[in-house]
């Protein structure tokens, strides 16, 4: 099990002028998927970070500006990859639906 805390989309107290944020929700149909794992892979496909989804399926990463891959790993589902571009001062929203 990953030692990272559960993530959510609450960004109060975050100075977005100094951060690039990647955030979203993992869902199956209309339901959020709590306890899934979301990995952040760099432009070369190398593993950078992993967080569990919150009780509402939410996740968040603070990343360097650039192109990233978000990989959702949920029980009874194939891994799902989504490409996202992070920019300083912005929240790159990427929601992932798993089978």
Task: Explain what the structure shows.
This protein is mainly beta. The chain has one domain: Sandwich (Immunoglobulin-like). Helix content is about 0%, strand content about 50%. The protein contains no helices and 9 strands. Strands 1, 2, 5, 8 and 9 form a 5-stranded mixed beta sheet that branches. It has a 4-stranded antiparallel beta sheet with strand order 4-3-6-7, with no helix packed on it. A hairpin with a 6-residue loop joins strand 6 (about 65-75) and strand 7 (about 80-85). The protein is globular. Residues about 1-10 have low confidence and may be disordered.
Low-confidence regions: 1-8
Tally of contiguous helical segments: 0
Question: What value does the average pLDDT take?
Answer: 89
Radius of gyration: 13 Å
Sequence of secondary-structure elements: EEEEEEEEE
CATH-derived architecture: Sandwich
Major beta sheet summary: 5 strands, mixed
Strand proportion: over 45%
* Tally of strands: 9
Morphology: globular
Q: Could you say how many structural domains there are in total?
A: 1
Q: Looking at CATH, which topology would you report?
A: Immunoglobulin-like
């Amino acid at each position: 099990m990953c030692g990272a805390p559960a993530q959510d989309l609450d960004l109060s107290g975050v100075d977005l002028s100094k951060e690039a944020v990647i955030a979203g929700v993992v869902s199956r149909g209309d339901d959020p998927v709590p306890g899934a794992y979301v990995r952040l892979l760099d432009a070369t496909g190398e593993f950078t970070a992993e967080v569990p989804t919150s009780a509402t399926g939410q996740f968040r990463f603070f990343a360097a500006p650039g192109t990233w891959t978000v990989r959702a790993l949920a029980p009874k589902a194939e891994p799902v990859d989504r490409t996202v571009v992070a920019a300083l001062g912005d929240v790159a929203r990427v929601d992932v639906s798993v089978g």
